[in-house]
Amino acid sequence: MLLETIRPGVSSRFVLCLHVGECNPDVTPVLQSSALRYPALRRRALGFRGIDTSRISALDAEHVWHPYGGFPSTTRPLVVDSAEGVRLKLSDGSELIDGMSSWWAAVHGYRHPVLDAAVRDQLSRMSHVMFGGLTHEPAARLAELLVQITPDGLDKVFFADSGSVSVEVAAKMCIQYWRSRGRENKRRLMTWRGGYHGDTFAPMSICDPDGGMHSLWSDVLTRQIFAPAPPSAYEPDYVKVFERILEAGRDEIAAIVVEPIVQGAGGMRFHDPRYLTELRRMADEHDVLLVFDEIATGFGRTGELFAAGHAGVAPDVMCVGKALTGGYMTLAATLCTSEVAQAISAGEAGGLMHGPTFMANPLACAVAVAAAELVLERDWRAEVSGIERGLLDGLAGVEDLPGVADVRVLGGIGVVEMHEPVDMQRATDAAVGEGVWLRPFGKLVYAMPPYVCTPAEVGRIAAALGAVAQT
Questions:
Q1: Is 68 one of the annotated active-site residues of the chain?
Q2: Which of 110, 283, 420, 468 is most buried by its number of CB atoms within 10 A?
Q3: How far apart are CA 31 and CA 10, in angstroms?
Q4: Is 322 annotated as catalytic?
C-alpha cells in the first residue's frame, strides 16, 4: 500500500480514513506531509464528499462511459448521493422511488439492516481470498442453500462474476459435457427468438440476432440455431415447429437455452408454462441438455421462487444472479446436475476450464446467503402478489392511451409496450416528475419494484408508467 512506501511499518489500515483528522495521531503527520508530494493521497485524504454535484456531473461527462450508450451521453445522468429503503436520494436533496430495483437486483431495497450487517460481519473477517485450492464458509453455505431451493437435481454450483458470465459458463458446461462424452460435433446452442442472455460473446450469440441489441455482432458471433419467439398463449403448432428445428439439428445441438416464463431485456414478453414442460420432454427425447437462464426471474420475481416452478420442471443447468445478493454486490452462479459435472470431470481436461479471479468472493457470498434467507423468511409470495395487484390496478386504462400497443403484468413485473421507441430523456423527465425512477428501453416502459414497496409506492410507480406512456 502507499503508506508502506512512505514509512515502513505504518499499518495500511489507515488508508481507510476519509479525512486526515480521523486517523491515528501517529500517522496524521505522515499523511499531511506526504499529501503534498502524492496528489492521489491528497485526494483520498479529502474524501469523496468534497466533490459537489456540478463537479461530479462534469467528471462523469468527461470520463465515464455509461451502459448501452454513446460518448458523450445523450441523456443527463442523475447524481445519487445515497439510497435507503426503496428510495434513491439525489444530490439536490430530492428523492425517487426506485421502480427498477437497480436493474432487478435490489429486491429488499437499500440499506437493509440484515444485509448491511452481513457485509460488516464478513468484512471484519475477510473481504476476499482466491478460490483456487481454497474455500470458505460463505461459499459453502451459499452453495448448500442454492441446492436446497432450486429445482431438484441441481446439486453442483459454480460461482461466477455476473449474469453474463454465468451464461458463458453454462455454454462451456454444455459443450464440454458433450466433448467429454466423445461427441464433439454437439457444440451449437438452440434458443427461441426474442431472448436476451448477456453481453459477453456466448450469451450474445443466443440473443435475438435480428433487431436485438447485439445484432451488430451477428457476422462475428457463433451461428446458433433459433426457433420463432414463443407465443404468450400455449399453441401446440408452435411446439411442433420448435421440435422440427430441434430434430433437424440434434446431432450438433449441445443445449436448448431459454429464459423461462419471461423474456427479459429482449422484449419483456411472457409465455405459457406448458412450453417449459415441452422443452423438457424434447430435450430428453432428442438428447440435448436444457438450460434455464433465471438471472432476471429467480428469487420470486414471477410469483414462483424460480420461474421453472410454474411448470414444475427442472433443467440440467440453471443460471442465477441479480437478486442473488439483493443487489449489494456482483455475484452469479451456474448450477448443474451431478451427471453434467461428472461427465465434464471425466473428460480429457479433467474439469471445467473456467476460473474468475473474484470467484466466490466471500463478501458477495455472505450477503447472498443473507439475501436468500431474507426472501425465504419473509412472506415473499404475498409481497409479490401485492405488487402484481397494485400494478394491475394502477395500469388499468393505460392500454387505451394513444401510442400504447400492450400492457402486461406478471408477478412483480409491469410492462407498457409502445408502438414506437420512447425518447429516453423525455421518459426520464416524466417519471422523475412523478417522483419515480424508471429506465425504459426501445418501445418498452416497465417496472420491477423492490418487494418491500408499500401499496402506495407501487401505485406511484404505476402512475409513473402511465405518465411516461403519455409523453
A1: yes
A2: 468
A3: 11
A4: yes
